[in-house]
Write a structure and sequence with these properties.
CATH superfamily of the largest domain in chain B: Glutaredoxin
Strand order of the largest sheet of chain B: 1-3-2-4-5
Number of helices of chain B: 8
Helix content of chain B: 55-70%
CATH architecture of the largest domain in chain B: 3-Layer(aba) Sandwich
Distance between the termini of chain A: 32 Å
Oligomer: heterodimer
Shape of chain B: elongated
Distance between the termini of chain B: 106 Å
CATH topology of the largest domain in chain B: Glutaredoxin
Number of domains of chain B: 2
Order of helices and strands of chain A: HHHHHH
Strand content of chain A: under 5%
Radius of gyration of chain A: 18 Å
Largest interface: A-B, 44 and 42 residues
Structural class of chain A: mainly alpha
Largest sheet of chain A: none
Number of helices of chain A: 6
Number of strands of chain A: 0
Chain lengths: 165, 247
Amino acid sequence: METRQQSTARMTAAWPWISTVARLGLAAVFLVAGGLKITDLSASGRAVNAYRLMDFETAKVVGAVQPFLEIALGLLLLIGLAVRLSAIIGAILLVIFIAGIASAWARGLQIDCGCFSKGGDLAAGRTAQYGLEILRDVGFLVLAGIVMAKPRSRFSLDGLLMGEQ
Amino acid sequence: MSKGARDRANARRVVEQQKAAERRRRVTIWTSVAVVAVLVIAGLVGWATLSGQEKTDAGKLTTPSVAVDDSTAFSVGSGPVVVDLYEDFMCPICHQFENTTGPTIKQMVSQNKVTVRYHPVSILDRASNGTEYSTRSAGAAAAAAVDGKFLQYHDVLYANQPEENSDGLSNAKLIELGKSVGLSDSFATAVNDKTYDAWVAKVTDTFSSRGYNGTPTIVVAGKQVQGPNQTLPTTQDFTQAVTQAAG
Protein backbone atom coordinates (compact mmCIF):
# COMPACT_ATOMS: atom_id res chain seq x y z
CA MET A 1 0.00 0.00 0.00
CA GLU A 2 1.09 3.51 -0.75
CA THR A 3 2.17 5.51 2.26
CA ARG A 4 1.14 9.11 2.75
CA GLN A 5 4.72 10.19 2.15
CA GLN A 6 4.86 8.37 -1.16
CA SER A 7 1.67 9.96 -2.39
CA THR A 8 2.86 13.42 -1.32
CA ALA A 9 6.12 12.84 -3.15
CA ARG A 10 4.19 11.76 -6.19
CA MET A 11 2.07 14.94 -6.10
CA THR A 12 5.22 17.02 -5.71
CA ALA A 13 6.59 15.37 -8.81
CA ALA A 14 3.33 15.81 -10.73
CA TRP A 15 2.73 19.51 -10.02
CA PRO A 16 5.32 20.87 -12.43
CA TRP A 17 3.70 18.86 -15.20
CA ILE A 18 0.17 19.96 -14.28
CA SER A 19 1.40 23.55 -14.18
CA THR A 20 3.09 23.11 -17.55
CA VAL A 21 -0.17 21.98 -19.14
CA ALA A 22 -2.09 24.83 -17.49
CA ARG A 23 0.54 27.40 -18.51
CA LEU A 24 0.63 26.28 -22.14
CA GLY A 25 -3.17 26.06 -22.23
CA LEU A 26 -3.48 29.62 -20.96
CA ALA A 27 -0.85 30.74 -23.48
CA ALA A 28 -2.90 29.19 -26.28
CA VAL A 29 -6.07 30.91 -25.05
CA PHE A 30 -4.46 34.36 -25.17
CA LEU A 31 -2.64 33.74 -28.45
CA VAL A 32 -5.81 32.61 -30.19
CA ALA A 33 -7.97 35.36 -28.67
CA GLY A 34 -5.45 38.04 -29.69
CA GLY A 35 -4.67 36.51 -33.08
CA LEU A 36 -8.32 36.55 -34.13
CA LYS A 37 -8.63 40.25 -33.35
CA ILE A 38 -5.30 41.66 -34.42
CA THR A 39 -6.07 41.44 -38.15
CA ASP A 40 -8.95 43.91 -37.90
CA LEU A 41 -8.38 46.49 -35.19
CA SER A 42 -11.35 48.65 -36.11
CA ALA A 43 -13.63 45.63 -35.70
CA SER A 44 -12.02 45.00 -32.32
CA GLY A 45 -12.73 48.62 -31.34
CA ARG A 46 -16.36 48.26 -32.43
CA ALA A 47 -16.64 45.08 -30.32
CA VAL A 48 -15.45 46.98 -27.24
CA ASN A 49 -17.78 49.86 -28.10
CA ALA A 50 -20.73 47.44 -28.24
CA TYR A 51 -20.45 46.95 -24.47
CA ARG A 52 -21.32 50.65 -24.10
CA LEU A 53 -19.00 51.05 -21.14
CA MET A 54 -16.93 53.90 -22.59
CA ASP A 55 -17.11 56.45 -25.36
CA PHE A 56 -16.22 55.40 -28.88
CA GLU A 57 -12.80 57.07 -28.98
CA THR A 58 -11.72 55.22 -25.81
CA ALA A 59 -13.23 51.98 -27.06
CA LYS A 60 -11.21 52.25 -30.26
CA VAL A 61 -7.96 52.56 -28.31
CA VAL A 62 -8.88 49.73 -25.93
CA GLY A 63 -9.88 47.57 -28.90
CA ALA A 64 -6.56 48.22 -30.61
CA VAL A 65 -4.39 47.71 -27.53
CA GLN A 66 -6.16 44.56 -26.30
CA PRO A 67 -5.12 42.07 -29.02
CA PHE A 68 -1.47 43.17 -28.79
CA LEU A 69 -1.57 42.68 -25.01
CA GLU A 70 -3.19 39.28 -25.38
CA ILE A 71 -0.59 38.08 -27.87
CA ALA A 72 2.31 39.43 -25.79
CA LEU A 73 0.93 37.76 -22.68
CA GLY A 74 0.40 34.52 -24.61
CA LEU A 75 4.03 34.57 -25.77
CA LEU A 76 5.31 35.32 -22.26
CA LEU A 77 3.36 32.37 -20.87
CA LEU A 78 4.56 30.20 -23.73
CA ILE A 79 8.23 30.84 -23.00
CA GLY A 80 7.55 30.89 -19.26
CA LEU A 81 8.93 34.23 -18.14
CA ALA A 82 7.90 35.48 -14.68
CA VAL A 83 5.20 32.85 -14.84
CA ARG A 84 3.41 33.77 -11.63
CA LEU A 85 3.18 37.46 -12.54
CA SER A 86 2.07 36.63 -16.10
CA ALA A 87 -0.64 34.35 -14.73
CA ILE A 88 -1.78 37.08 -12.31
CA ILE A 89 -2.05 39.60 -15.16
CA GLY A 90 -3.89 37.00 -17.25
CA ALA A 91 -6.30 36.40 -14.37
CA ILE A 92 -6.93 40.14 -14.00
CA LEU A 93 -7.73 40.38 -17.73
CA LEU A 94 -10.10 37.42 -17.47
CA VAL A 95 -11.87 38.96 -14.48
CA ILE A 96 -12.32 42.19 -16.46
CA PHE A 97 -13.75 40.22 -19.41
CA ILE A 98 -16.13 38.32 -17.12
CA ALA A 99 -17.26 41.57 -15.51
CA GLY A 100 -17.85 43.10 -18.96
CA ILE A 101 -19.91 40.15 -20.16
CA ALA A 102 -21.89 40.05 -16.90
CA SER A 103 -22.65 43.76 -17.18
CA ALA A 104 -23.79 43.37 -20.81
CA TRP A 105 -25.98 40.48 -19.68
CA ALA A 106 -27.41 42.46 -16.78
CA ARG A 107 -28.25 45.39 -19.05
CA GLY A 108 -29.93 43.08 -21.58
CA LEU A 109 -27.58 44.00 -24.43
CA GLN A 110 -27.67 41.54 -27.30
CA ILE A 111 -24.06 41.48 -28.37
CA ASP A 112 -21.48 38.96 -29.42
CA CYS A 113 -19.01 39.00 -26.52
CA GLY A 114 -16.08 39.28 -28.91
CA CYS A 115 -14.09 36.85 -26.82
CA PHE A 116 -12.98 34.67 -29.71
CA SER A 117 -14.32 36.80 -32.49
CA LYS A 118 -14.44 40.41 -33.50
CA GLY A 119 -17.80 40.53 -31.76
CA GLY A 120 -20.01 43.55 -31.82
CA ASP A 121 -22.97 42.70 -33.96
CA LEU A 122 -25.27 39.85 -33.33
CA ALA A 123 -27.51 38.89 -36.23
CA ALA A 124 -31.19 39.15 -35.47
CA GLY A 125 -32.63 35.90 -34.19
CA ARG A 126 -29.43 34.81 -32.50
CA THR A 127 -29.29 35.08 -28.74
CA ALA A 128 -26.17 35.90 -26.84
CA GLN A 129 -24.80 32.93 -24.89
CA TYR A 130 -23.59 34.95 -21.94
CA GLY A 131 -23.79 32.13 -19.41
CA LEU A 132 -21.64 29.81 -21.50
CA GLU A 133 -19.15 32.55 -22.24
CA ILE A 134 -18.72 33.35 -18.56
CA LEU A 135 -18.40 29.65 -17.76
CA ARG A 136 -15.65 29.30 -20.36
CA ASP A 137 -13.78 32.30 -18.98
CA VAL A 138 -14.08 30.87 -15.47
CA GLY A 139 -12.48 27.69 -16.83
CA PHE A 140 -9.57 29.78 -18.12
CA LEU A 141 -9.43 31.49 -14.74
CA VAL A 142 -8.93 28.05 -13.14
CA LEU A 143 -5.94 27.48 -15.44
CA ALA A 144 -4.52 30.84 -14.36
CA GLY A 145 -5.16 29.89 -10.73
CA ILE A 146 -3.18 26.66 -11.08
CA VAL A 147 -0.24 28.52 -12.61
CA MET A 148 -0.40 31.20 -9.91
CA ALA A 149 -0.44 28.62 -7.11
CA LYS A 150 2.27 26.41 -8.62
CA PRO A 151 4.32 28.59 -10.96
CA ARG A 152 7.17 26.09 -11.29
CA SER A 153 6.71 24.22 -14.52
CA ARG A 154 8.71 22.35 -17.14
CA PHE A 155 10.16 23.96 -20.25
CA SER A 156 10.08 27.46 -18.81
CA LEU A 157 12.59 30.24 -19.10
CA ASP A 158 12.11 30.85 -15.37
CA GLY A 159 13.38 27.35 -14.61
CA LEU A 160 16.32 27.80 -16.91
CA LEU A 161 17.30 31.14 -15.37
CA MET A 162 16.97 29.81 -11.83
CA GLY A 163 19.14 26.83 -12.72
CA GLU A 164 16.47 24.27 -11.95
CA GLN A 165 16.52 22.43 -15.23
CA MET B 1 32.67 12.04 9.89
CA SER B 2 34.05 14.18 12.67
CA LYS B 3 31.91 16.84 14.24
CA GLY B 4 34.03 19.58 12.63
CA ALA B 5 33.60 18.10 9.14
CA ARG B 6 29.84 17.80 9.66
CA ASP B 7 29.62 21.43 10.73
CA ARG B 8 31.59 22.56 7.70
CA ALA B 9 29.34 20.53 5.39
CA ASN B 10 26.27 22.03 7.03
CA ALA B 11 27.63 25.53 6.72
CA ARG B 12 28.41 24.95 3.04
CA ARG B 13 24.88 23.73 2.44
CA VAL B 14 23.38 26.75 4.15
CA VAL B 15 25.52 29.07 2.06
CA GLU B 16 24.52 27.26 -1.11
CA GLN B 17 20.86 27.47 -0.17
CA GLN B 18 21.21 31.18 0.49
CA LYS B 19 22.93 31.66 -2.84
CA ALA B 20 20.18 29.77 -4.62
CA ALA B 21 17.52 31.80 -2.84
CA GLU B 22 19.31 35.00 -3.75
CA ARG B 23 19.50 33.89 -7.37
CA ARG B 24 15.79 33.07 -7.44
CA ARG B 25 15.00 36.47 -5.96
CA ARG B 26 17.12 38.26 -8.57
CA VAL B 27 15.62 36.23 -11.41
CA THR B 28 12.09 36.90 -10.16
CA ILE B 29 12.69 40.65 -9.99
CA TRP B 30 14.27 40.97 -13.41
CA THR B 31 11.85 38.65 -15.20
CA SER B 32 8.97 40.60 -13.65
CA VAL B 33 10.46 43.84 -14.91
CA ALA B 34 10.85 42.24 -18.35
CA VAL B 35 7.23 41.04 -18.38
CA VAL B 36 5.87 44.46 -17.47
CA ALA B 37 8.10 46.11 -20.08
CA VAL B 38 7.01 43.68 -22.81
CA LEU B 39 3.33 44.28 -22.01
CA VAL B 40 3.71 48.06 -21.95
CA ILE B 41 5.53 47.98 -25.27
CA ALA B 42 2.89 45.67 -26.77
CA GLY B 43 0.18 48.09 -25.67
CA LEU B 44 2.02 51.04 -27.15
CA VAL B 45 2.51 49.15 -30.42
CA GLY B 46 -1.25 48.57 -30.53
CA TRP B 47 -1.94 52.23 -29.96
CA ALA B 48 0.62 53.31 -32.56
CA THR B 49 -0.80 50.85 -35.08
CA LEU B 50 -4.28 52.27 -34.58
CA SER B 51 -3.21 55.89 -35.00
CA GLY B 52 -1.13 54.91 -38.04
CA GLN B 53 -4.15 53.29 -39.64
CA GLU B 54 -6.35 56.26 -38.85
CA LYS B 55 -3.80 58.63 -40.34
CA THR B 56 -3.58 56.52 -43.51
CA ASP B 57 -7.37 56.43 -43.77
CA ALA B 58 -7.62 60.17 -43.24
CA GLY B 59 -5.00 60.73 -45.93
CA LYS B 60 -6.85 58.57 -48.44
CA LEU B 61 -10.29 59.89 -47.59
CA THR B 62 -12.33 60.90 -50.63
CA THR B 63 -15.82 61.94 -49.68
CA PRO B 64 -18.50 61.30 -52.29
CA SER B 65 -19.83 64.69 -53.38
CA VAL B 66 -23.45 63.65 -53.03
CA ALA B 67 -23.24 62.29 -49.46
CA VAL B 68 -25.49 63.78 -46.77
CA ASP B 69 -25.75 63.51 -42.97
CA ASP B 70 -22.21 64.56 -42.11
CA SER B 71 -21.27 63.06 -45.49
CA THR B 72 -21.99 59.53 -44.33
CA ALA B 73 -25.14 58.60 -46.26
CA PHE B 74 -26.95 58.75 -49.59
CA SER B 75 -30.36 60.28 -49.60
CA VAL B 76 -33.32 58.99 -51.59
CA GLY B 77 -36.69 60.77 -51.69
CA SER B 78 -37.79 64.01 -50.08
CA GLY B 79 -40.55 63.07 -47.63
CA PRO B 80 -40.89 64.66 -44.17
CA VAL B 81 -39.95 61.55 -42.11
CA VAL B 82 -36.26 60.71 -42.16
CA VAL B 83 -35.42 57.01 -42.23
CA ASP B 84 -31.79 55.98 -41.65
CA LEU B 85 -30.79 52.54 -42.89
CA TYR B 86 -27.41 51.15 -41.87
CA GLU B 87 -26.66 48.15 -44.04
CA ASP B 88 -23.75 45.92 -44.94
CA PHE B 89 -23.95 44.40 -48.42
CA MET B 90 -22.59 41.11 -47.01
CA CYS B 91 -25.29 40.88 -44.35
CA PRO B 92 -28.00 38.28 -45.10
CA ILE B 93 -30.48 39.80 -42.64
CA CYS B 94 -30.12 43.12 -44.48
CA HIS B 95 -31.03 41.26 -47.67
CA GLN B 96 -33.99 39.75 -45.88
CA PHE B 97 -35.11 43.18 -44.69
CA GLU B 98 -34.74 44.57 -48.22
CA ASN B 99 -36.85 41.71 -49.57
CA THR B 100 -39.63 42.03 -47.02
CA THR B 101 -39.79 45.75 -46.24
CA GLY B 102 -37.84 47.23 -49.17
CA PRO B 103 -40.89 47.49 -51.49
CA THR B 104 -42.85 49.33 -48.77
CA ILE B 105 -39.98 51.77 -48.30
CA LYS B 106 -39.81 52.43 -52.05
CA GLN B 107 -43.54 53.02 -52.09
CA MET B 108 -43.27 55.51 -49.20
CA VAL B 109 -40.51 57.31 -51.09
CA SER B 110 -42.63 57.60 -54.21
CA GLN B 111 -45.60 58.81 -52.14
CA ASN B 112 -43.27 61.45 -50.72
CA LYS B 113 -43.75 60.23 -47.14
CA VAL B 114 -40.13 59.53 -46.26
CA THR B 115 -36.56 60.51 -47.03
CA VAL B 116 -34.34 57.45 -46.81
CA ARG B 117 -30.67 57.87 -45.93
CA TYR B 118 -28.64 54.79 -46.80
CA HIS B 119 -25.46 54.33 -44.75
CA PRO B 120 -23.32 51.60 -46.34
CA VAL B 121 -21.20 50.21 -43.49
CA SER B 122 -18.55 47.51 -43.47
CA ILE B 123 -18.79 45.53 -40.26
CA LEU B 124 -18.57 42.12 -41.96
CA ASP B 125 -15.18 42.46 -43.65
CA ARG B 126 -14.09 39.36 -41.75
CA ALA B 127 -16.73 37.29 -43.56
CA SER B 128 -15.14 37.33 -47.02
CA ASN B 129 -11.88 35.40 -46.62
CA GLY B 130 -9.81 38.55 -46.43
CA THR B 131 -11.11 40.17 -49.64
CA GLU B 132 -13.03 42.73 -47.51
CA TYR B 133 -16.14 42.47 -49.62
CA SER B 134 -18.13 44.70 -47.25
CA THR B 135 -15.74 47.58 -47.79
CA ARG B 136 -15.35 46.98 -51.53
CA SER B 137 -19.08 46.74 -52.17
CA ALA B 138 -19.86 49.78 -50.03
CA GLY B 139 -17.10 51.73 -51.82
CA ALA B 140 -18.57 50.68 -55.16
CA ALA B 141 -22.01 51.83 -54.00
CA ALA B 142 -20.49 55.23 -53.18
CA ALA B 143 -19.06 55.40 -56.69
CA ALA B 144 -22.49 54.53 -58.06
CA ALA B 145 -24.03 57.30 -55.94
CA VAL B 146 -21.59 59.86 -57.33
CA ASP B 147 -22.71 58.81 -60.81
CA GLY B 148 -26.35 59.15 -59.76
CA LYS B 149 -27.32 55.49 -59.57
CA PHE B 150 -27.05 54.56 -55.90
CA LEU B 151 -30.41 52.87 -55.45
CA GLN B 152 -30.22 50.88 -58.69
CA TYR B 153 -26.78 49.63 -57.74
CA HIS B 154 -27.82 48.96 -54.13
CA ASP B 155 -30.66 46.76 -55.41
CA VAL B 156 -28.51 44.85 -57.87
CA LEU B 157 -25.91 44.20 -55.15
CA TYR B 158 -28.55 42.60 -52.94
CA ALA B 159 -29.95 40.62 -55.87
CA ASN B 160 -26.44 39.20 -56.36
CA GLN B 161 -25.45 38.94 -52.70
CA PRO B 162 -22.64 36.44 -52.16
CA GLU B 163 -22.71 33.86 -49.34
CA GLU B 164 -21.26 34.97 -46.02
CA ASN B 165 -17.72 33.59 -45.60
CA SER B 166 -17.21 33.24 -49.35
CA ASP B 167 -14.73 35.46 -51.21
CA GLY B 168 -17.58 37.82 -52.11
CA LEU B 169 -17.93 39.27 -55.58
CA SER B 170 -14.73 40.20 -57.39
CA ASN B 171 -14.09 43.80 -58.41
CA ALA B 172 -14.65 42.73 -62.02
CA LYS B 173 -18.08 41.39 -61.05
CA LEU B 174 -18.86 44.59 -59.11
CA ILE B 175 -18.04 46.59 -62.25
CA GLU B 176 -20.05 44.26 -64.46
CA LEU B 177 -23.09 44.72 -62.17
CA GLY B 178 -22.51 48.48 -62.41
CA LYS B 179 -22.60 48.30 -66.19
CA SER B 180 -25.86 46.34 -65.98
CA VAL B 181 -27.52 49.36 -64.33
CA GLY B 182 -25.94 51.84 -66.73
CA LEU B 183 -22.78 52.89 -64.87
CA SER B 184 -19.75 53.64 -66.98
CA ASP B 185 -15.98 53.98 -66.93
CA SER B 186 -15.69 56.53 -64.12
CA PHE B 187 -17.46 54.02 -61.88
CA ALA B 188 -15.12 51.22 -62.94
CA THR B 189 -12.10 53.39 -62.22
CA ALA B 190 -13.37 54.27 -58.75
CA VAL B 191 -13.94 50.59 -57.95
CA ASN B 192 -10.50 49.54 -59.16
CA ASP B 193 -8.76 52.46 -57.43
CA LYS B 194 -10.70 51.85 -54.16
CA THR B 195 -11.46 55.55 -54.24
CA TYR B 196 -14.14 55.46 -51.54
CA ASP B 197 -12.86 52.62 -49.33
CA ALA B 198 -11.43 54.97 -46.66
CA TRP B 199 -14.74 56.83 -46.66
CA VAL B 200 -16.53 53.53 -45.90
CA ALA B 201 -14.34 53.16 -42.79
CA LYS B 202 -15.48 56.64 -41.74
CA VAL B 203 -19.15 55.74 -42.27
CA THR B 204 -18.65 52.60 -40.18
CA ASP B 205 -16.96 54.60 -37.39
CA THR B 206 -19.83 57.08 -37.39
CA PHE B 207 -22.28 54.17 -37.14
CA SER B 208 -20.43 52.80 -34.10
CA SER B 209 -20.05 56.18 -32.45
CA ARG B 210 -23.83 56.56 -32.65
CA GLY B 211 -24.07 53.44 -30.49
CA TYR B 212 -25.24 51.00 -33.16
CA ASN B 213 -23.51 47.66 -33.58
CA GLY B 214 -25.57 45.41 -35.79
CA THR B 215 -26.90 45.46 -39.32
CA PRO B 216 -29.44 46.24 -40.45
CA THR B 217 -30.03 49.12 -38.07
CA ILE B 218 -33.25 50.89 -38.95
CA VAL B 219 -33.83 54.34 -37.50
CA VAL B 220 -37.04 56.28 -38.06
CA ALA B 221 -37.01 59.97 -37.12
CA GLY B 222 -34.01 59.39 -34.84
CA LYS B 223 -35.49 56.37 -33.07
CA GLN B 224 -34.25 52.84 -33.67
CA VAL B 225 -37.00 50.46 -34.77
CA GLN B 226 -36.80 46.88 -33.58
CA GLY B 227 -39.07 43.87 -33.27
CA PRO B 228 -39.65 42.18 -29.90
CA ASN B 229 -36.41 41.11 -28.14
CA GLN B 230 -34.31 43.33 -30.37
CA THR B 231 -35.14 41.32 -33.47
CA LEU B 232 -35.60 42.49 -37.05
CA PRO B 233 -38.73 44.67 -37.27
CA THR B 234 -41.53 43.45 -39.49
CA THR B 235 -42.89 45.63 -42.29
CA GLN B 236 -45.80 46.41 -39.98
CA ASP B 237 -43.43 47.55 -37.19
CA PHE B 238 -41.70 49.79 -39.69
CA THR B 239 -44.89 51.27 -41.17
CA GLN B 240 -46.20 51.95 -37.68
CA ALA B 241 -43.02 53.82 -36.74
CA VAL B 242 -43.26 55.98 -39.87
CA THR B 243 -46.94 56.72 -39.29
CA GLN B 244 -46.22 57.71 -35.70
CA ALA B 245 -43.33 59.94 -36.72
CA ALA B 246 -45.48 61.60 -39.37
CA GLY B 247 -47.89 62.46 -36.55
